[in-house]
Design brief:
The chain is an alpha+beta fold and 133 residues long. The protein has helices spanning 30-43, 58-69, 77-88, 94-106, 125-132; strands at 5-13, 19-27, 110-113, 120-123. The chain folds into 2 domains: 5-43, no CATH class; 57-132, Orthogonal Bundle (Arc Repressor Mutant, subunit A).
Amino acid sequence: MSPKKRKLRLELFDDEGDKIMITYEGRLSREKLLQIADLVELYGGEYDTERSYAMESKLTKVARIIEKYFPLSTFSSKDVMEAFINEYKENISLSTVSTYLARLTERKFLERTGSGGSLKYRLYRENVINSEG
C-alpha cells in the first residue's frame, strides 16, 4: 500500500527578510522529508563564526563530535550519542543520531561497516587524508 498523497507548504525567511516558499504535493516518504530538510538547511547558509554552538544544527554538531572524538577510530551510534550529550549538555535520541549517521554516510563523510545492531562507522578515508595533508 503506497503512502497517502499529502500537501506540505513551508515559508522560510532569512536574516534580511527575504522569503522562500516551498510547496510539495504528492506521496511524502521519509526520504523525501530528509531531502526537504537538507534544502531548508542549505537555504539557511553557513553560520557566522561569531554565532554560538547553540545556533548550529544538530547534524553539524554530530559531525563536529565525530571529527573531535573519533578522527581515526571506528564508533557506533551509541558512542556518538554519549559524546554529544557530554559535549553539548543536551539530549539527542539514538534514532536521531542513527538518522544523521546515515545521512553523513550518504554524503561520503562517513564509511559504514557491519549490519543490523552492530553497525560501525569511521570518517571517510579521503576526508582523513585531506585533513592530514
